[in-house]
């Protein structure tokens, strides 16, 4: 089945960097999977119409108004974003985002027909206390269980940027628990230290719907390989 493979550039890159990333990526790209690139916001508009499916990395929980520094769902839509990450652990940590606000972001995106990608994942203490499933379940409570076409990215915080990965069985257990929260279709992605050496094994050995790739996505050849392998 076609997988959803997302590059999350985080706060990396520049206009020149992305220009050459796109050229190198399309030279190598032979994947039949759906590829999405979450660029830093200013570059969405610049690289709209270049054959990439674009994603925002965050959105305001408000529709419009006196919210200096924020970007509305409509603005993201105008920039060509078809998807948007919300609840990424880095936004939860550095911007102190809480579930209630993340839910409002989810609603703003739906209103503008942008597909939200809700990121969830446990910190190390929770994993060590064997409380991961309860923790994920609580993070998912914000979405109505009857919601359709939900996309959830399971990203254990301790795995992001560390080279550490959960056991395959633990990924599958998280996927099953996420699916069990919804009555309708839900896509579950895995993120956390994904690279071209582990991508295939994650997608072959679990029934995950795709991957969310941080660091390794900055290398267009490496990301192209991941998109091809999974
Ligand atoms: P890394 O792939 O660098 O671990 O980052 C994962 C991530 O946070 C993607 O959103």
How would you characterize the overall build of this protein?
With 230 residues, the chain is of the alpha/beta class. It has one domain (4-229): TIM Barrel, CATH 3.20.20. It is 38% helix and 18% strand. The protein has ten helices and eight strands. The protein has helices at residues 15-28, 41-46, 73-78, 89-94, 99-111, 124-128, 132-140, 168-179, 199-205, 220-229; strands at residues 4-8, 34-38, 53-56, 81-86, 115-120, 150-154, 186-191, 210-213. An eight-stranded parallel β-barrel has the order 1-2-3-4-5-6-7-8, surrounded by five helices. α1 (15-28) crosses α10 and α7 packs parallel to α8. It is globular, with a radius of gyration of 17 Å. The structure holds 1,3-dihydroxyacetonephosphate (13P). Residues 8, 88, 155, 160-161, 191-194, 212-216 line the site of 1,3-dihydroxyacetonephosphate.
What's the CATH class, please? Alpha Beta
**CATH topology name:** TIM Barrel
- Helix and strand string, N-terminal first? EHEHEHEHHEHHEHEHEH
N- to C-terminal distance = 10 Å
- Let me know the number of strands: 8
In this structure, how is the largest beta sheet organized?
8 strands, parallel, barrel
Tell me the radius of gyration.
17 Å
Strand content: 15-25%
In terms of quaternary structure, what is this? single chain
**Total domain modules:** 1
Bound molecules: 1,3-dihydroxyacetonephosphate
Number of helices: 10
**What CATH architecture would you give?**
Alpha-Beta Barrel
The level of helicity is 25-40%
Q: Describe the global form.
A: globular
Alpha-beta classification:
alpha/beta
Overall mean pLDDT: 96
Give the neighbour order of strands across the main sheet. Answer: 1-2-3-4-5-6-7-8
């Amino acid at each position: 089945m076609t997988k959803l493979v997302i590059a999350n550039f985080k706060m990396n890159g520049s206009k020149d960097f992305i220009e050459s990333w796109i050229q190198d990526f399309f030279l190598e790209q032979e994947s039949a999977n759906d590829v999405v690139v979450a660029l830093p916001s200013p570059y969405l508009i610049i690289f709209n119409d270049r054959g990439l499916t674009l994603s925002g990395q965050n959105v305001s929980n408000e529709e419009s108004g006196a919210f200096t520094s924020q970007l509305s769902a409509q603005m993201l839509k105008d920039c060509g974003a078809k998807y948007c990450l919300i609840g990424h652990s880095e936004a939860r940590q550095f911007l102190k985002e809480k579930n209630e606000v993340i839910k409002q972001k989810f609603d703003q995106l739906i209103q503008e027909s942008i597909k939200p990608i809700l990121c969830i994942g446990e910190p190390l203490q929770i994993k060590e206390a064997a409380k991961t499933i309860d923790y994920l379940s609580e993070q998912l409570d914000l979405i109505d269980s009857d919601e359709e076409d939900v996309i959830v990215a399971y990203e254990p915080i301790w795995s992001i940027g560390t080279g550490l990965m959960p056991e395959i069985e633990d990924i599958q257990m998280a996927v099953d628990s996420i699916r069990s929260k919804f009555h309708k279709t839900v896509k579950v992605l895995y993120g956390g230290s994904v690279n071209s050496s582990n991508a295939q094994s994650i997608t072959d050995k679990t029934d995950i719907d795709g991957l969310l790739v941080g660091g390794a996505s900055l290398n267009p050849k490496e990301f192209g390989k991941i998109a091809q392998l999974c």
